[in-house]
Structure of ATP-binding cassette domain-containing protein:
Amino acid sequence: MTEPLLEVRDLQKYYFERDTFIDTLLGRERQSVKAVDGISFEIEPGETLGLVGESGCGKSTTGETLLRLREATGGSVRFDGQDVFEMDSEELKAFRKDVQIVFQDPFSSLDPRMTIGDIIVEPLKIHDIPEDPGDQSKREWRRTKAGELLKRVGLSATQLDRYPHEFSGGQRQRIGIARALALEPDFIVLDEPVSALDVSVQAQVLNLLGDLQEEFGLTYLFIAHDLSVVRHICDRVAVMYLGNIVEFGPTDELFESPKHPYTKALLESVPRPSTSEHGRRVDALSGDVPSPRNPPSGCRFRTRCPQVIPPSDLDIDQETYRAVMDLRDALVVGDVNPDHIWDAADPERVDEEAFIDEARSRHVDAELRGEVAGVVDTALGYLAEGDDARAEETLRNRFESPCETRRPGVGDATHPAACHLYEGSDEVTVIETNASEPLEADD
Ligand code: SF4
């Protein structure tokens, strides 16, 4: 088996808030924002791994942390067998030559005051390349090299003295790629390299990246929020949600048979050209990614999951269960305002039934029946009396999901998914068993 070029183990990147001297004096507890929370993966030489997820899921932070552009909170990264976080300054300099990054925004990643030639030559100067320019001066050698690189990315050596503003978005991204290639790296982090480009230009840049990979034997970590972009360029894909990897797999397999409800929802939201698919059922992702300041207990995706697992002894359909869980979460984060409900239902604040009807119509997006209706109405009755905590407790006691008390992680299989629906296989591991704290309101 080939040795991986890059090995990432339990990588963590936390940011800390309320961390100043004044905060300590005032006795404020330090709060962590877990941007990347213990992820592991490997990339083999010549391979392209896609890292995909919505914005804010931690994928760009992952790329920057493993390149040591940000300091990791924990975990390890090995590049070509060497521990990246233990490198001394000489080793780090060599590492910075072997690994490069191409940023998302071709408009801001190039210095507008420098010519294209100077931009491409700059990394060569920093690393004092070449050692021996032969018959040429170093300046001439570097300029020739910059011209060749420009040609290789589809531009012309005659454009070396132009400035970034004279180029289109796609051309600027080509210039960014030429700059990344100048040091002849082994590994490139492509951080949303085509997101800012028109669709037609995206295809050209993706083709260029594929050609360059073949020609120079490059290894890529390809970061994207759009699954359709990674399909044709990646060998494997890792799907990230709120700082964790939730599914991992060979690209075709992941696209043909996605397992994790989040991956399925992401794929459903990709537009398809086929008219025969019009009218297909789409479990679109609802709501935003929760704050990493205050991630949900258990499975981080549970607040949006269209397949969240109900208690085994509860007879309830998924739509109704989702609606009740949404009510519970809204109560916890303070999104249910009893005063507004009373004002609309009965300003005299006497008719509890009217309050319950109004609360249901505002906050429960499903038809409730039988036991479920009884428990929800009891909880809303407590809310009408001003006892929010008891209302939330009543719902928790009957509706608590295994998805909120145990956190799933990806197992060892070739196509694992961090989801309790796959429990009992080697596709899922349970990371913690005591994560039953409720969601708390962001303060
Ligand atoms: S563990 Fe539960 S909430 Fe999480 S993805 Fe699976 S079914 Fe959904």
